[in-house]
Amino acid sequence: MLEILGAVGSIILIDLLLSGDNALVIGAAAAGLPRRQRWYAIALGGGGAIVLRIAFAVIATLLLRLPLLQAVGGLLLLIIAIRLLVDRGDTKHTKSAEHVSSAQENKPGLTTDMAAKMKALERENRELRQANEILRKASAYFAQAELDRRFKP
User: Fold this and answer.
1) Which CB contacts under 8 angstroms, 24+ apart, belong to 144-152?
2) Less crowded by CB within 10 Å, the N or C end of the chain?
3) C-alpha 90, offset from chain centre
């Protein structure tokens, strides 16, 4: 019973994390609309997101019943993780990006608009790296949980 509650809690937590970005996108898309249309956009967008999430969960559940699909998915995640680690170890790209960034900030011809865009891109890059780290940890957690479930006596 406790195991089922833990699994349900994990699903709810991940669903909350994933639905946060949906709310931001729907809100940003509806922000410029008149009040009545904004309400419809938010209601239909939220409802559509819920329906799609349920449909994709059902499809994923059915696909996970296929033999060896989890092993193939785990192998693909392992390949992606290795590539990410190799890219992280390559400091040449990081140093050159930092050099270009600092050179552009000190460049006298750089407009404030370009500097603001550069800062926004750097912030977005940081956020994407954090999201990637969260997804990596979540996939490792679920892979371990699946292995524990399969090999329990």
Assistant:
1) 145/7, 145/10, 146/70
2) C
3) 23
What residues contact 115, with CB distance under 8 A and at least 6 apart? 104, 105
Alpha helices in the chain (DSSP H): 2-30, 35-63, 69-89, 91-106, 112-150
Report the C-alpha gap between 81 and 145 in whole angstroms. Answer: 18
Distance of CA 89 to the CA centre of its chain: 22
Which are the contacts of 41, defined by CB distance < 8 A and separation ≥ 6? 26, 29, 30, 33
> Hey, where are the domains in the chain?
1-65, 68-153
> What is the separation of C-alpha 8 from the centre of its chain, rounded to a whole number of angstroms?
20
pLDDT digits (tens, 9 = 90+) for 14-30: 777 777 777 778 888 88
What CA–CA distances, in Å, run from 77 to 35, 57, 89, 115?
A: 44, 19, 18, 36
Asked if residues 138 and 18 have their Cβ atoms less than 8 Å apart, the reply is no
The tens digit of pLDDT for each residue in 115-133 reads 888 888 888 888 888 888 8
